[in-house]
From TrEMBL:
Protein name in UniProt: Small integral membrane protein 13
Family matches, as Pfam families: DUF4750 (PF15938)
Organism for this UniProt entry: Pleuronectes platessa (European plaice)
Transmembrane portions of the chain: 6-30
PANTHER family: SMALL INTEGRAL MEMBRANE PROTEIN 13
InterPro entries: DUF4750
Keyword Membrane: yes
Comp. bias regions, Polar residues: 49-59
Length: 88
């Protein structure tokens, strides 16, 4: 009788260990392939390392900074919108 109880407990413990091991390996693989790319998730986990994509300046950032002065050009009378302060 004690052998069947011991065997049952061993099966339950082995099942839990295998399930947890599978979950941790799955989490690691998903983290390495996908989740580590998100800065928000890295901050939540406390990972201080930065991926290469953030350390190298991208072309999109340089294009944004180059086009920033163009946004501040004066508008024509058609493009101007009356502010609520000037209407009162």
């Amino acid at each position: 009788m004690w052998q069947s109880v011991g065997l049952t407990l061993l099966v339950i413990v082995a099942t839990l260990v295998c399930g947890l091991l599978f979950m941790f390996i799955g989490w690691y693989v998903v983290w390495q392939l996908f989740l580590s790319k998100f800065k928000f998730l890295r901050e939540l986990v406390g990972d201080a390392s930065t991926p290469q994509a953030e350390t190298q300046p991208s072309e999109a950032k340089s294009e944004r900074t180059a086009s920033a002065p163009a946004r501040n050009r004066p508008r024509t009378s058609r493009q101007r919108v009356a502010s609520p302060e000037s209407t009162s």
